[in-house]
Amino acid sequence: MRHNGRFSKSIRFYKHFENPQFSTNFELEVFSVFKIKEAMGLEEILLHDALQQGIEQGIEQGIEQGITLEKQKVIKNGWAEGLSVELLARLTALNEEEVKAYIHKLSADK
To answer: Is 5 helix (H, G, I), strand (E, B) or coil?
Structure first.
């Protein structure tokens, strides 16, 4: 791991380490915790962390939306084939009221 000590310089503004090895160890630990591959200042680290959290949250939301769309597709196609609300609820792991609400939405959208 290559670093130029920019983080150490910015953290020293807030905390002084008597032993220079503590400073180096602290910086390496921060790189590890924040999964940083290059030297950054404190502001850059905080922005990097916020960006990573945003990306992870976006991925989670995308997965959840994909699952919801797939369940809606199963309900739409199953209902068109004459499957019961009870069976559609079991197939999608939704309760019957949620299935009925989506079927009602399908009817209203036509």
So the answer is: coil
Q: Give the amino acid at 81.
A: E
Provide the whole-model pTM.
0.56
- Condensed to tens digits (0 to 9), the pLDDT of residues 24-49 reads 676 667 667 666 666 666 677 788 78
Judge contact between 11 and 42, C-beta under 8 A.
Answer: yes
Contacts of 108 (CB under 8 A, 6+ apart): none
CA distances (Å), origin 95, targets 23, 50, 63, 79, 105: 56, 36, 20, 15, 16
Domains of the chain, by residue range, sit at 61-110
